[in-house]
Amino acid sequence: MRVIMMVLGGTLLLSGCSLDPHYQRPSAPVPAAWPQGASYPATAQAHSPAEDIPWREVMVDDKLRQVVEMALSDNRDLRKAIADVEAARAQLGEQRATLLPTINAGIDGDRSRSLISGSDSTVLSSSYGASLSTSAFTLDLFGKNRSLTGAAREAYLSSAATATSTRLTLIADTATAWVALATARSNLTLARQTMESAGQSLAVTRSRLRNGVASAVDVAQAETVYQQARADVASALTTEAQDKNALDLLAGRPVPEALLPGDVASLSQAVKPVAAGISSAVLLRRPDVQAAEHTLKSANANIGAARAAFFPSITLTASNGLSSEALSSLFSGGAHVWSLAPSVSLPIFDGGANLSALRYAEAEKQGYVASYEKTVQTAFREVADALARKGTIDEQQAAQRDYVAAAERSYQLASNRYQAGVDTYLNVLDAQRTLYSARQSLFSLEQSRLDNLITLYNVLGGGGK
């Protein structure tokens, strides 16, 4: 046992060296503050970073909350991400085990009858042994295993950050899909109302034709509008079904009808706004940025492991135990036996394999530096885009509401003029198409406003709580 303890003690004493390069986080290749200009809202210091605001305080509609909770419970992408974290944790444990010797316990016995030299007699001999042993344990003198363990640890942390990023994206995607379904339902209602109105107009125009106050051209034009409205209803039904399917996929199971949204206009208070603050340093706390940095740190540790391959390795095989000719006296009167067999291996010629491995590790790190910087740049662009949308959406919605009101007046005037016989039915149809398109655009803008609130919360790193 003393020999094994000596091996363990020597391991702890001799495993303090590391050849990892000094790690320094790359500077963020983005401005320190968010963009300013006519397209952007005025910025102010945020009371709380988005990542500190629980998603339930942002998604305040009760139906939406329940659908998001379904997704967090049953979404398969999130389950896969969580499983990947557990796999990375297991790999870390496996790699960490290489830092310590493997100790095995063994009991063996041998019993044989052999010929006595110089006679015809035989003798019966027995031997029994019990031992603790460590086999081919490599002392981590130059930190190779420590570096590989560090790389595995960073890979695990990267996987955990990726799972968090998947969770945040899932919350945002689910909320966005829920809002998209509300918009699809609004468009379906509008299409049905338009088809009903077009059907009534067609009936009236046919009646006017029979009474000699409308032309066959008017009837044909009314028929065209009605059939187009029928096609729009069919298309809107398809969109609604597809949006419902997309929501079910995100939720992991069919969303009950009771949790589905109404029309998009009823969701104006479903999502609360969050402030972006002033500094772009908040991006470094995003889980996808953290995942990219952990991957970079893992590559940095791999360089240390590649450097250690140039140095000698010392391998120990040791055993410590008891030996006796009788099993009954093995543990009471057995002889103490031990062995220690160190070996040293010094790389002399490997055809350039170690050098190539080091160059690969260094090049891989540079690639991950670029990936990290690109992740930060992408994050900055996502926030800047969301802020630009936030800065203009209110004005666009106000203009669109005025446009809808003007289109309604135009349609009413054109209808009155046609009824009075002072205008053609073509002008009525043009006004009707304009009004239909204007109302659709108003729905889309409300969807965009809600999507922007969701997106801004997501790209600022919100959703982890």
Keywords:
12% strand; 465 residues; single chain; Outer membrane efflux proteins (OEP); alpha+beta; 4-stranded antiparallel sheet
Question: Helical content, roughly?
Answer: 55-70%
The shape is elongated
CATH topology of the domain at 32-75 and 167-287 and 359-459: Outer membrane efflux proteins (OEP)
Strand order in the largest sheet: 1-2-3-4
Structure class: alpha+beta
CATH architecture term of the domain at 32-75 and 167-287 and 359-459: Up-down Bundle
Say which CATH homologous superfamily of the domain at 32-75 and 167-287 and 359-459 is assigned.
Outer membrane efflux proteins (OEP)
Low-confidence stretches: none
Number of strands: 4
* N-to-C SSE string, H for helix and E for strand: HHHEEHHHEHEHH
| CATH level 1 class label of the domain at 32-75 and 167-287 and 359-459 | Mainly Alpha
| Separate helix tally | 9
Which range does the strand content fall in? 5-15%
Topology of helices and strands:
Layout: H1 2-14, H2 62-74, H3 76-96, E1 103-115, E2 122-139, H4 144-210, H5 216-251, H6 287-308, E3 313-324, H7 330-333, E4 335-345, H8 353-419, H9 425-459
Antiparallel strand pairs: 1-2, 2-3, 3-4
Helix pairs in contact: 2-4, 3-4, 4-5, 4-6, 4-9, 6-8, 8-9
Would you give an account of this structure?
By secondary structure, the chain is an alpha+beta fold. It has a domain of 266 residues: Outer membrane efflux proteins (OEP) (Up-down Bundle). It contains nine helices and four strands, in the order H-H-H-E-E-H-H-H-E-H-E-H-H. It has a four-stranded antiparallel sheet with strand order 1-2-3-4. Helix 2 crosses helix 4 and helix 4 runs antiparallel to helix 5. The longest helix has 67 residues. It is elongated, with a radius of gyration of 37 Å. The model has no long low-confidence stretch (mean pLDDT 89).
